[in-house]
Amino acid sequence: MADEEQHISTQDARSGTTPHVVRYVLGISLALAVIAMLLVIWR
Predict the structure, then answer these.
(1) Chunked in runs of 10, what are the mean pLDDT values of the chain (43 residues)?
(2) How many Å apart are CA 20 and CA 35, to the nearest integer?
(3) In 3-state terms, what secondary structure has residue 1?
(4) Which residues cross the membrane (predicted)?
(5) Whole-number pLDDT of residue 33
């Protein structure tokens, strides 16, 4: 006999909440990288 598929919610599969801190870290890192590259190019 085949086992039945188990369907669980995304929240339960993650076992917690997803904070949006990563979004801010990536945005700030991208902005700093662009500024650094502009400074390198203009020197």
Answers:
(1) 77 72 93 97 89
(2) 23
(3) coil
(4) 21-42
(5) 98
Dihedral sign computed on CA atoms, order 16, 21, 23, 26: negative
Residues contacting 17, CB < 8 A, separation 6+: 11
pLDDT computed for residue 10 by the predictor: 77
Torsion of CA 9, 15, 19, 22, to 10 degrees: -100
Q: Which long-range contacts (CB under 8 A, 24 or more apart) does 34-39 make?
A: none
Q: What do you get for the CA distance between the two ends of the chain, in Å? A: 70
